């Protein structure tokens, strides 16, 4: 009881502090808005003075020339001060423009119309008819899928406590970011969750599915509670604490799920976000001066699941969950570094499955808990190639060409 009273008193203190904050601290957009400037009004008055005194001077009014000179000086002064502020704001308070990131771009998000969403859902249901008809998506399995998807492609946005000076209530948001080709999947998930959330097109090929209303967030929490496996569970618990304090709820803290990966669809949602199904085709090469051995034609399959080793929002390592995935898939966990020309940007943990006998586990799992987005089409093509390799069709020229044709229409090359 004491801790709850302390939290409430802390919120009241934060609320009083926030009344002095400016609106720019809570802008719902990334635009650079400058502080209010007096110079447009000053310039307007100066120009009016210059015009009026100019007319009076032309008509010979006494001492009008002095007022004309004063008006002229006022215009010059307003121009000088206004240009000074523009230059200062344009360089971000004297920060040289050369120090700004060259890849900085500003994308304007726009809402997606209901007609587009209906069309996307209709197209999705017709293309995924077989998958959905065989899907047994109880609330429990839907929750596991959404938990994996959130931990792969999702973001939990937590605001500061209290309201802004404009008395805008600040609520948290759950944000899923994906390729535009996956819009059908997210509209389908929205329908499965009772129509909560809204959609934005944040760039030409990127969509965002945002759950920002409190009832929608509570429903989502109920679905995924106790089903998260990564450090994002800490942020999820901060979200629960926020709702408990601000809305006087009593939602229990979510514990990390440690159940067997084969028992639920969590890995399906996680793969939907970060997995990759690939086909490697190697052409035959004879011996040469650089290569001491000849290379035969070969075709192999690979499944890759990558994650950054360090989760910045929670300051935690991703190693435990990636080790568990690699153990489940019976493969080694690899580490490599992402670099640019000057420095190492980050370490990446990579689950890499290549053995044809190990891939059967993946085939079984994703047929039991199917992928629902565009990645499901990649998996189905990948599975076709798998069965062709198992039946030795890839040894024949016709089979090899067919697998190459399958590969040409997968992943980013899919039309």
Task: Label this structure with key terms.
single chain, 415 residues, alpha+beta, Helix Hairpins, Endonuclease I-creI, 5-stranded antiparallel β-sheet, 4-stranded antiparallel β-sheet, 16% strand
Task: Give me the secondary-structure topology.
Layout: H1 2-18, H2 39-58, H3 64-90, E1 110-111, H4 114-127, H5 129-133, H6 139-153, E2 154-157, E3 173-179, H7 183-192, E4 198-203, E5 206-211, H8 214-224, H9 232-246, H10 266-274, E6 275-282, E7 298-308, E8 310-311, E9 316-317, H11 319-328, E10 333-339, E11 344-353, H12 356-368, H13 375-390, H14 397-407
Antiparallel strand pairs: 1-4, 2-3, 3-5, 4-5, 6-7, 7-11, 8-9, 10-11
Question: What does this 3D model show about the protein?
Answer:
- By secondary structure, this protein is an alpha+beta fold.
- The protein has 3 domains: 68 residues, Helix Hairpins, CATH 1.10.287.70; 149 residues, Endonuclease I-creI (Roll), CATH 3.10.28.10; 142 residues, Roll (Endonuclease I-creI).
- The chain is built from 14 helices and 11 strands.
- The strands form 3 sheets. The chain has a 5-stranded antiparallel sheet. Strands 6-7-11-10 form a 4-stranded antiparallel sheet. The protein has a two-stranded antiparallel ribbon with strand order 8-9.
- Strand 4 and strand 5 form a beta hairpin.
- Helix 2 runs antiparallel to helix 3, helix 6 runs parallel beside helix 10 and helix 12 packs across helix 13.
- The longest helix is centred in the first third of the chain and has 27 residues.
- The chain is elongated.
């Amino acid at each position: 009881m004491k801790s709850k009273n302390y939290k409430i008193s802390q919120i009241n203190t934060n609320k009083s502090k926030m009344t002095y904050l400016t609106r720019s601290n809570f802008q719902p957009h990334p635009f650079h808005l400058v502080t209010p400037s007096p110079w447009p009004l000053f310039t307007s008055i100066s120009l009016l003075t210059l015009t009026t005194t100019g007319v009076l001077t032309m008509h010979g009014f006494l001492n009008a020339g002095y007022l004309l000179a004063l008006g002229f000086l006022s215009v010059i002064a307003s121009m000088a001060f206004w240009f000074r502020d523009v230059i200062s704001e344009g360089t971000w308070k004297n920060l040289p423009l050369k120090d700004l990131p060259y890849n900085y771009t500003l994308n304007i998000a726009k809402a997606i119309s209901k007609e587009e969403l209906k069309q996307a859902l209709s197209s999705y249901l017709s293309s995924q008819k077989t998958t959905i008809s065989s899907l047994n998506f109880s609330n429990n399995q839907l929750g596991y899928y959404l938990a994996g998807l959130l931990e792969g492609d999702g973001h939990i946005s937590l605001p500061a406590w209290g309201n802004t000076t404009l008395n805008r209530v600040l609520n948290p948001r759950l944000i899923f970011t994906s390729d535009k080709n996956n819009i059908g999947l997210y509209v389908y998930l929205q329908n499965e969750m009772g129509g909560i959330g809204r959609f934005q097109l944040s760039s030409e090929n990127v969509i965002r599915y945002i759950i920002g209303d409190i009832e929608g967030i509570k429903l989502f929490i109920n679905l995924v509670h106790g089903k998260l496996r990564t450090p994002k569970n800490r942020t999820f618990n901060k979200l629960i604490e926020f709702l408990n304090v601000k809305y006087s709820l009593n939602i229990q803290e979510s514990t990390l799920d440690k159940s067997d990966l084969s028992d639920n669809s969590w890995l399906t949602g996680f793969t939907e976000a970060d997995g990759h199904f690939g086909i490697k085709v190697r052409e035959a090469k004879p011996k040469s001066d650089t290569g001491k051995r000849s290379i035969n034609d070969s075709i192999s399959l690979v499944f890759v699941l990558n994650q950054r080793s360090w989760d910045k929002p929670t300051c935690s390592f991703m190693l435990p969950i990636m080790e568990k995935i690699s153990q489940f898939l019976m493969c080694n966990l690899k580490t490599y570094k992402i670099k640019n020309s000057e420095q190492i940007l980050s370490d990446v943990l990579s689950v890499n499955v290549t053995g044809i006998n190990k891939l059967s586990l993946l085939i079984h799992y994703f047929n039991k808990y199917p992928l629902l987005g565009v990645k499901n089409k990649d998996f189905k093509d990948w599975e076709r190639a798998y069965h062709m390799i198992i039946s030795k069709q890839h040894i024949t020229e016709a089979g090899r060409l067919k697998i190459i044709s399958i590969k040409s229409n997968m992943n980013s090359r899919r039309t």
